[in-house]
Specification:
The complex is a heterodimer. By secondary structure, chain A is an alpha/beta fold. Chain A folds into two domains: about 5-25 and about 260-290, Helix Hairpins, CATH 1.10.287; about 25-255, ATP synthase, F1 complex, gamma subunit (Pyruvate Kinase, Chain: A, domain 1, 3-Layer(aba) Sandwich), CATH 3.40.1380.10. Chain A is built from six helices and six strands. In chain A, helix 1 (about 5-60) crosses helix 5 (about 200-205) and helix 1 runs antiparallel to helix 6. Chain B is an alpha+beta fold. Chain B folds into two domains: about 5-85, ATP Synthase, domain 1 (Sandwich), CATH 2.60.15.10; about 90-120. Helix content of chain B is about 25%, strand content about 50%. Chain B is built from two helices and seven strands. Chain B has a five-stranded mixed beta barrel with strand order 1-2-5-6-7. In chain B, helix 1 runs antiparallel to helix 2. Chain B is globular. Classes of the chains: A alpha/beta, B alpha+beta. The interface of A and B includes residues 46, 146 and 234 of A. Strand 6 (about 215) of chain A pairs parallel with strand 4 (about 40-45) of chain B.
Chain lengths: ~300, ~120
């Protein structure tokens, strides 16, 4: 076998091995998307009921709460960025990071100081590499977040917002996550979690429903006190789950195109290998023919 | 047919139980409360404690609930809890071990959680 041909054969072998791996990763990601979507669906009843309850207190009483009142001059804002622990997900992480950077820029233009909280090793690595200040990081659970993880993430944020701004607290809390629209579409977006706009919460509740006048136990303030942190946790939990589902969908897509590309590469390489083999055969034939006719010429000459 | 109320017991990550009931007893921060059909709309904060649901077919469902809310309106009752377990989901031996450990470590919150679980398991 000629050297050229051997090189092609070797490359085909290595590309097929890669193709097998990406194909497997694609299938794993596809099954994980389904699982993650199921988790999003399972968390929906809790979120809906909680939203209803918050709306009920918000509209049914005139209580003021630090988590619902806007600061007059917001000076500091916290941004929670949700990325993934692992890469190989196409532009998933860079889109989320880009969205966070745009949001940070916007907030800074408004004269607010931004504290960044990051979930996921990819985001942490991005910020550390650029030596930017990060308030707190959370890693290790982005593939399958649990409610306990969401609580862990929410705790320091709620604490920061309840603290006075002068003592290192924040006035606003923004979240950047990747919304799972469909298997093919995931969009990185930012949303303001706190202070809560009760009108917005009310819009999420089912339309045309007249909320009854509730009797609060022990009191409206206490109920709101207990409800709002849970509401924030549930929102963060939902964002974590959607990010996880989006990440798996992005991985699936990236791995699918990698598999397709590998297939194409194998095709091209096989054609080149075939051409090389044919060229080798042609060369051999012409060598034989050339040799034979040279011999024939030589004998013909001595006969004369 | 006796009046019924529809109960949804949901934990943060799943729906634990749902069905028709005639009476629900839960522990709020200001004491135990019993809800029957036709109760006034109510929104309360739950303490960790057992929740007893008397179902309309005469059975009883007991669940250990750790923190959360009870909300009732239009004969629909929802119990929202961060963690909720039905009594037959509770592993008694494991919980007893947890209780021992919590007592040894002086962890009051864990002790209370284990205690609530055991009581819920005993009530089935």
């Amino acid at each position: 076998m000629g050297a050229q041909l051997r090189v092609y054969k070797r490359r085909i072998r290595s590309v097929s091995a890669t193709k097998k791996i990406t194909k497997a990763m694609e299938m794993i990601a596809a099954s994980r998307v389904v699982k993650a979507q199921r988790k999003v669906a399972a968390s929906t009843p809790y979120a809906t009921e909680l939203t209803r309850a918050v709306t009920a207190v918000g509209t049914g009483s005139n209580t003021k709460h630090p988590l619902t009142t806007e600061a007059e001059n917001p000076a500091r804002a916290a941004v929670l960025l949700l990325t993934s622990d692992r890469g190989l997900a196409g532009a998933f992480n860079s889109n989320a990071i880009k969205a966070a950077e745009q949001l940070t820029e916007r907030l800074e233009r408004d004269g607010k100081q931004v504290e960044t909280y990051i979930v996921g090793r990819r985001g942490v690595a991005h910020y550390n590499f650029r030596e930017r200040k990060v308030a707190e990081t959370f890693t290790g659970f982005t593939d399958e977040p649990t409610y306990a993880d969401a609580k862990k993430v929410a705790a320091p944020l709620i604490e920061a917002i309840e603290k006075e701004t002068a003592e290192g607290g924040v006035d606003e809390l923004h979240i950047v996550f990747t919304e799972f629209v469909s298997m093919m579409t995931q969009t990185a977006l930012d949303a303001r979690l706190l202070p809560l706009r009760l009108e917005e919460v009310a819009e999420q509740a089912p339309k045309g429903e007249i909320l009854p006048l509730y009797d609060f136990e022990p009191s409206a303030e206490d109920v709101l006190d207990a409800l709002l942190p849970r509401y924030v946790e549930s929102r963060i939990y939902n964002a974590l789950l959607q990010s996880a589902a989006s990440k798996h969908a992005a991985t699936r897509r990236a791995m699918k195109s990698a598999t397709d590309n590998a297939g194409e590469l194998i095709n091209t390489l096989s054609r080149l290998a075939n051409a090389a083999r044919q060229a080798e055969i042609t060369q051999e034939i012409s060598e034989i023919v050339g040799g034979a006719s040279a011999l024939a010429d030589a004998t013909a000459g001595s006969d004369r | 047919m006796a009046a019924e109320l529809h109960v949804e017991l949901v934990a943060a990550d799943r729906q634990v139980w749902s069905g028709e009931a005639t009476l629900v007893v839960a522990r709020t921060t200001s004491g135990d409360i019993g809800v029957m059909p036709g109760h006034q709309p109510l929104l309360g904060v739950l303490e960790s404690g057992p929740v007893t649901i008397r179902t309309s077919d005469g059975g009883t469902v007991v669940a250990a609930v750790h923190g959360g809310f009870i909300s009732f309106a239009d004969d629909k009752l929802s119990l929202l809890a961060e963690i909720a377990e039905l009594s037959d989901e509770i592993d008694v031996q494991r919980t007893e071990r947890e209780l021992e450990r919590a007592k040894a470590e002086g962890d009051a919150a864990a002790e209370r959680r284990a205690d609530v679980r055991l009581r819920a398991a005993a009530a089935r």
